[in-house]
User: Which sequence fits this backbone?
């Protein structure tokens, strides 16, 4: 997938976009720590996050502007457990 996906395209289904996202994530060879050691960080399984985002995008017209959608994920209190 090159460039930005066309989220509004009616020619591709949510499932196809989710598949593209998961395939791109599968190509990753490394994981970088987005923060500093000793500072907590929230992690989630990226295919789950992608599926959730696609579901939310499909329903975006029904949400209030700037609505918040927390995910459980995994809290890494030290910021070093996942890397």
Assistant:
């Amino acid at each position: 997938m090159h460039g930005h996906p066309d989220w509004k395209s009616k020619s591709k289904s949510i499932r196809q976009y989710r598949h593209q996202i998961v395939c791109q994530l599968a190509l990753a060879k490394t994981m970088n720590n987005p923060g500093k050691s000793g500072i907590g960080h929230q992690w989630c399984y990226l295919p789950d996050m992608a599926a959730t985002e696609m579901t939310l995008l499909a329903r975006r017209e029904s949400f209030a502007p700037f609505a918040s959608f927390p995910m459980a994920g995994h809290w890494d209190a030290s910021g070093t457990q996942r890397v």
About this structure: The chain has a mean pLDDT of 76. The two ends are 26 Å apart (CA to CA). The helical segments are 14-26, 46-58. DSSP finds two helices and two strands in the chain.
